[in-house]
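Methods, example record. To illustrate the input and output format used throughout this study, we show the complete record for ERCC4 domain-containing protein. The sequence lines were provided to the predictor; the line carrying structure tokens was produced by it.
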Amino acid sequence: MSLVPDPLLIARNPDPASSLPFLVRIPLGEGIVLRTKETWPRTSKVYCYRHDEPWSDDAEIVDEVPLRSVTRRGAAIEIVADRTRESRSQFVLTRARGREMIFWQSPRVAKAARPNVALPTARAAGVADLEIVVDTRERYAWKFTHQQATTRKHALPVGDYGAFVDDALVAVVERKSLADLAGALTSGRLAYRLSALAETPRAALVVEDRYSSVFKLEHVRHSLVADQLGECQVRWPSVPIIFAETRALAEEWTFRFLGAAVAEHTMGEQARRVLPDGSDG
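The corresponding predicted structure is encoded as:
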């Protein structure tokens, strides 16, 4: 007969200066205590951080969720609450760039975060041998293993991914996470980057997130970021800023964009050879 686990406890964070107003205690082992912004992941993933201190018996409890089970499965801790609604969720503990990252999600949130789409495998714009050049400074680069493309490392004058025809750079794409984008906008660095991108024949900036996530950013005024995005598109209309929702979709969009740029450049060169300058057609 299995034992009923202790409840999931949620309390107020006693630190008034913290931007994460709640503490949650996961009844696993001696108890895992995290700081969190929400009491349950209802509309989006809730990012959590390890609490530096043990759980206090004097904690101000705001919710006590009875549980049916608590199970550790690899990098995830799955909890099943003893109630009919909002009964399942999981804490995912992973590492990125050398530091721990923890987020709390429900099945509904996880499903919404993964768009139910099957990416095509057809060539981009019919280009048979598309080679994508990855800038040597690009960390954790896309591999384009799903797409019909090859990659090679080479220093680009601007952007993270580029396409050449012969020795001519015909298109580049700058990749940003949402946090990188917000930081570059508020510091003013993005203006210089867009100005440089605009000097290339074709350029775009791709964000690995949804536009709606701009209004969920922490430690920054949402309207400021949205205004600056609008101003950037007005000042540099030749460099679209694309919110591609996920890393995989951003990679796919970049593949299609670079393929279209190569095809367009190639057709233009062929037309110029058929109709040289000065021809009346």
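Annotations derived from this record:
The radius of gyration is 24 Å.
Helices lie at 107-113, 178-187, 189-197, 222-235, 247-274.
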